[in-house]
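Students often ask why we bother encoding 3D structure as a string. The short answer is that it lets us treat folding as translation between two languages. Here is a chain of 218 residues written in the first language.
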Amino acid sequence: MIGNDWDEKLSIIWHSEGFKKFYHIVEEEYKNKTIFPPKDHIFDALKLTPYKDTRVVIVGQDPYHGVGEAHGLSFSVQKGVKVPPSLQNIYKELYDDLGIPPKNDGDLTNWAKNGVLLLNSVLTVVKDTPASHRKLGWERLTDYIIKLLNEKEEPVVFILWGNFAKEKAVLITNPKHLIITSPHPSPFSARYGFFGSRPFSKTNEFLKKNGLKEIDWS
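And here it is in the second language, the structure alphabet:
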């Protein structure tokens, strides 16, 4: 389904009767409703960031629910789409942290190709209906993905923004890894501790200390 080492890592999921039944429900949703992201982009986070290359995980909630926005990467939108407020705040913190100026678009594909797994906990959403596919079944898959990354021998940085993402910390038990938490970058919460949290430099300092390639956040 993915085309890289995630297929083997997740083979027990792909071939399970539970996932097959669940994915049939997802396919029926696509037939009967307007669902985002486009079906061929559901697994783009995994396609762009193989297991072996994952050095950082940024956990999101569910995809953007507006037309043309979501394309399978947490916090990212397709080129040509207005940069969402949360991502604007991420860019602001990136500039304040590392001096990297904001991009003209909200497409974070380069981060994904550079080892940053942009993983939403829920991988699909009904148009204009946030959280509509929560509890549908995606969490079982994405929690399993986090557990697999927790098993990695190489250190991984898990960036958990907001209370929803922080709930995933219980899955990360390997002391080799680094967990970075802060309030969500949403305009409603960013000023309460997201700004000034310096997640990007902290990530690179940790990777460098462990002899791993730093992330190019530009």
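Translate back mentally: The radius of gyration is 17 Å. Keep this in mind for the problem set.
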